[in-house]
Amino acid sequence: MIGDKESDLYIRRLFPFHFLINQELIITEAGISLKKILGDNCVGQPFTNYFTFVRPGLGIKYQMESIRKYENQIFILSANFKNSTFRMKGEFVFNEDNKTLLFCGSPWITSEKDFEKLGLKIKDFAVHDSTIDMIQNLRVQQMAVEDSNHVNKMLLEKNEELKKTNAELDRFVYSVSHDLRSPLLSIHGIIDIIKQREELSESTAALLQMIINSINRLDNSIIEILDYSRNARFDVQYSELDLAVLLNQITEDLKHTANIDFDIEFNTSPTISSDKFRLATILKNIIGNAVKYRKSGNDNCFVKVTVSKQGSLMEIIIKDNGIGISERSLPKIFDMFYRATSTVDGTGLGLYICKEMVLKLGGTILLESELNIGTTVTIKIPG
Ligand code: ADP
Predict the structure, then answer these.
(1) By the 8 A CB rule, do 309 and 267 touch?
(2) What would the pLDDT profile of 194-236 be if each residue is shown by its tens digit?
């Protein structure tokens, strides 16, 4: 059913071969392309002078009510013109007043010859802007799809290039850092020999110690860069590890640096299947930070490590009562090179590396902290 003026207009413009018939089956209107074939004077003539039904079937009578039963079905009409015939394909639609029938369709063109026979051109099938608009819209959509395919291809290629560049950069960082360590350690060694062999004045000994401190700082930075690039370059290598042994080694090394009470509690078996290098680096960094950022002058500094099992995940909680981190700094704490304080030496790489390594192990890391109260880091990793 059609009726509102706008859609009537649209249909008529979209179908330049349309025609309208009244209850007496007289053609009251014809599209301009149909008129081109049948002649202008088809309007006012009985529909049956020009058309016979081929489909939907023989039962259909040349009456409006009979045609109505087949509303919205595809009709094939045979049309007479200039002692010849052609076929039209389309459907009948009733007007809202139920007194007129609109045929929306077009000639059934199967070859170039049909165009010649009917004296038609392509533009006769799309005479109005709305039709052209539709075709243009389709073309624009098609171009958009082609464009997005092209962009996708380019992105994939760029992605491959970036992966290659990244891998090369990681290799470069690794070998440069590695090579930098050797001369640094030689200088350290030479200074140690001088200190042992020579009778040094107090001021010279102090100067040499300053050099050693700088070397140590530089070496720590290089080690962190190497850890980062090792994590980026190498796949995870699983092995059976004893967390108790690993944690004891780390805390034993740190006990010499400060007066701290270490407490390690296991609520589960200490055995874990994980990557030794990554797990050791993560724990060294987090526990190292808990010691490094202790409150100076506090005689009751502690680091408490609790290990539990949460389903298939191993949960390791490291809690300290150190200087803590301000709320403002917390959102950036895992960023590369970010430091929340400069009172102690550091690179701002440790937590960034921990996050990258935990991700590589398929786990999560969470840091909660309160300024002047302390910090708690929760690591969950499969194992
Ligand atoms: P670095 O220790 O080399 O500065 P990290 O990435 O390990 O780098 O840590 C980033 C910053 O987070 C540190 O500079 C410090 O301000 C803060 N931080 C990390 N751990 C702690 C902690 N346990 N207590 C207080 N501050 C911490």
Answers:
(1) yes
(2) 988 888 999 999 999 999 999 999 999 999 989 998 898 889 9
> In this structure, are 286 and 271 located in the same domain?
yes
Query: Candidates 222, 286, 295, 325: which one to mutate for ligand 1, based on the most atoms within 8 Å of Cβ?
Result: 325
pLDDT single digits (tens) 308-327: 999 999 999 999 999 999 99
Q: Are 93 and 101 in contact (CB under 8 A)?
A: yes
Q: Which structural domain, as residue segments, surrounds residue 120? A: 5-127
Contacts of 338 (CB under 8 A, 6+ apart): 329, 332, 348, 351, 352
Q: Is residue 139 part of a domain?
A: no
Question: Is 167 found in the same domain as 257?
Answer: no
Radius of gyration of the chain (CA): 42
Return all residues near 20 (Cβ < 8 A) that are at least 6 apart: 27, 28, 29, 30, 95, 100, 101, 102, 103
Can you tell me the distance from the alpha carbon of 354 to that of 144, in angstroms, rounded to the nearest whole number? 43
pLDDT of residue 9: 62
Cβ contacts of 283 within 8 Å, gap of 6 or more: 246, 247, 250, 316, 318
Structurally, how many domains does the chain consist of?
A: 3
Residue 142 lies in a domain: no
Please report the atom of ligand 1 found closest to the CA of residue 347: 3
Ligand 1 closest atom vs CA 341: 16
- 276 and 224, same domain (yes or no): no
32 against 250, higher pLDDT: 250
